[in-house]
Structures are given as structure tokens and as C-alpha cells.
Amino acid sequence: MSLIPDATEILSRARADLRMGLPVVLVDGDRCLIVAAVETLSPDRFADLCALPDRPHLAITGRRAETLKARAYDGDLARIVLPRDVDLTWLNAVADPADDLRKPMKGPLVALRDGTADLDRLALRILKSARLLPAALNASLAQVPAGLTRINAQPTRDILDQASPLHPIVGARVPLLSAENSRLHVFRPEDGGEEHYAVEIGRPPRDKPVLARLHSACFTGDVMGSLKCDCGPQLAGALAQMGQEGAGVLLYLNQEGRGIGLANKMRAYSLQDQGFDTVEANHRLGFEDDERDFRLGAALLKEMGFTSARLLTNNPNKIAMMERAGIAVTERVPLKVGENPHNAAYLATKAAKSGHLL
Ligand SMILES: Nc1nc2c(ncn2[C@@H]2O[C@H](COP(=O)(O)OP(=O)(O)OP(=O)(O)O)[C@@H](O)[C@H]2O)c(=O)[nH]1
Ligand SMILES: [Zn+2]
């Protein structure tokens, strides 16, 4: 019946539940796993989870486990056994590296080896997609409690593997400092996720490679003028070049913090203040270096009628991902602006570890 939510809609609800601190239940055949995000877990719900017949365990990513020197028997994740005197402070200390240096974890963390971790793996994927820290307090259940969102595992994995279709909602003229003849188009995904924007400068011909930039949202750099990165000058520089050429498309992708969200990016910044570089900070939080999905950039260009681009970037991964997603990149146009004493080490790390071209 069409009035019943489908798997995509349920996943979107589940993200909201987890962000509020409400557990959700993952179901695969006759297996059920109740999942709570550690970062939003209240003392009452924590007590309720501990009172379940099956003792909960803590799922963290392999990256976080590596930092904590825990054995990740499940490969890309570890299921950590809760100590007898577990409390929320302990859980938060395992989930969040903020105090790793000040208060190193006492005693070795014991990880589970038996059983299967596939539902735990899905739980961590869902938490990442909700822009929460990837640490989940999970327990097996015999049946789904009334009122909690119930997620069917396989359709949800399939949805997370695909990029949600994006639809144009509205476009209007917005004259810019760098290009008076500009329009802003808003695109909305079907899965209730973030909207993305396209700034179209002039009217670029659809049958020629378009001067394009895939810009990832950076609130600190784009809006506040932060000197910690080069995003603000890159945004202005790309628009200026498109203005000079009289044509171009700047895609503004709401993938803040290389896809980890602003709260996690600020956690990464605190770790950088403790001496870790941008890549190490992501890993200590439990994320990969870059959690972005550039397929949506290609999808937007196609939706606008383009098949090829001259891409303004220093990031070869972006070019590879665009090509794989069906947009021919005929030229890489370098975008070298905004280096300053505060971001020099950050830019050097990206060149050394993330393959950015100097
Ligand atoms: N996680 C994390 N994200 C950051 C950090 N500094 C900037 N960002 C984010 O990184 C993204 C910008 O990506 P960049 O790596 O600068 O550039 P790029 O888009 O990969 O490549 P270019 O096309 O060459 O600019 C934005 O989403 C920023 O919010 C950081 O220290 N940690
Ligand atoms: Zn930035």
C-alpha cells in the first residue's frame, strides 16, 4: 500500500531517531539488533538497554579501534565487550577521541570474535550517514519493541550503496559580484537528505565541456572566512574564473567536512589543535579520510544536460569519480588560491596523504 513508508523513507526516519537519541531496530530474517548512537544516548535509555536480556556491546569502526589498540576481528569494525562497571562516561570516551590524550583508555579493550557483525556494520553506516560519530551501543533482541523504527537490512544496504536521485526544485536569477548573469538552482534528493545547489553562470552550451567546480560545503571557510583551509578563496576564485569566461557551473554540495558534518569537523579541528593532521584526526574519530560521494556531482551535471566538463580542482580523485560516474573530464583546471600560514600544513598533508596536486 502506498501509504506505508518504503525502505528509503524508513531510513530517513531512522536517521532522525538516532540524532534525537532514540534507538532503532535492524532486522534480517529472524535476527534483530537494537541500535543506539552513543553520542546522543540518554542515561535512561542507556539503563534500559543494559537491562535487556542480551547484554549490549559497543560497535566502533576499525579506524577507531586502531587508535584504541583494540583488535578488530570483524575487519573494518570491532564489537567491544562492555566492562562490568560500564557507564555513559566510559562509552563516550570510547566513542569520542576528545580526551584520548588527557585520559588514555585504561585496560585493553576486549573485542567479540564469535557471531556475525553484518548488522553492526550496517548500524555504523547508518550513523555515518546521519553525520553522527560512528559508535553504536547494540544488543540482540528476540522481537522488535513497539514504537521503534524497524529497518530491513538488505533493502537498506542497497539504498546506502546507491546515490539518491536528485530532482530540480526551483531556479532563479541571483546576480553575483563575480558574475551578474547567474542563476541558482536547488536540487532535492528523494531520500529526505541534504539539498544541493548549482550556480549556473551565463548559459553554458550543453554540447561542449563546461567549466565546472564541485565545491564541498565548508561553513568555516566559505561563510566565516576561516584561514584553516583554502575553501573560501577557492569558492570565490572559481566563481571569478567562470565570470571572466562568461560561463560555468559551480555545484555547491552539502557534504560539509568531507562528508562527516560540521560537528564532526569541529571535533577533528580540536584534534588538530592537539597536534594531529587532518587525515589522522578523521581516523581517530572513526572516519575514513574522505567520506564524500562525488557521484552526486556527476548526477547534477547530467540532470542539467552536460556530458563533459573542464574541472576546476587539484584533487585527482574527483576527476576519477566523475569519469566513473559518466562525465568526461576533458581538462583539469588547477585552482591554486588562498594559501596562508594557518593552512600551509593542512595543504601539505593533503598533497602528501590524499594525492592532491601541488
Ligand atoms: N574532515 C575535515 N574536513 C575538512 C577539513 N578542512 C576542510 N574540510 C572540508 O573539506 C572539504 C573541502 O575539500 P578539499 O579537500 O579542500 O578540496 P577538494 O574538494 O577535495 O579538492 P579541490 O577540488 O582541489 O579543492 C570541505 O567539505 C571542508 O569542509 C578538516 O580538517 N577535516
Ligand atoms: Zn574549508
UniProtKB/TrEMBL annotation:
List each copy of the GTP cyclohydrolase II domain by range.
178-334
Q: Which Gene3D superfamilies match?
A: GTP cyclohydrolase II
Q: In which pathway does it act?
A: Cofactor biosynthesis; riboflavin biosynthesis; 5-amino-6-(D-ribitylamino)uracil from GTP: step 1/4
Statement: the UniProt record of this protein carries the keyword Metal-binding: yes
Q: Does the keyword Signal apply?
A: no
In which residues is Zn(2+) bound? C218, C229, C231
Instruction: Name the needed cofactors.
Output: Zn(2+)
| Record-level GO BP terms | riboflavin biosynthetic process
Q: What's its catalytic activity?
A: GTP + 4 H2O = 2,5-diamino-6-hydroxy-4-(5-phosphoribosylamino)-pyrimidine + formate + 2 phosphate + 3 H(+)
Q: What is its EC number?
A: 3.5.4.25
Cellular component terms per the entry's GO annotation = cytosol
Catalytic positions?
D290, R292
Q: Which Pfam families match?
A: GTP_cyclohydro2 (PF00925)
Superkingdom of this protein's organism: Bacteria
- State the UniProt keywords alphabetically: GTP-binding, Hydrolase, Metal-binding, Nucleotide-binding, Riboflavin biosynthesis, Zinc
The residues listed in the UniProt record as binding GTP, with positions renumbered to this chain, are R213, L214, H215, S216, A217, Q234, E256, G257, R258, T278, T313, K318
The cofactor binding remark recorded in the entry reads: Binds 1 zinc ion per subunit.
Which Gene Ontology MF annotations are present? GTP binding; GTP cyclohydrolase II activity; zinc ion binding
Family, according to the entry, reads as follows:
Belongs to the GTP cyclohydrolase II family.
What is the role of this chain? Catalyzes the conversion of GTP to 2,5-diamino-6-ribosylamino-4(3H)-pyrimidinone 5'-phosphate (DARP), formate and pyrophosphate.
Task: Report what the protein is called.
Answer: GTP cyclohydrolase-2
Organism whose genome encodes this protein: Pseudooceanicola nitratireducens
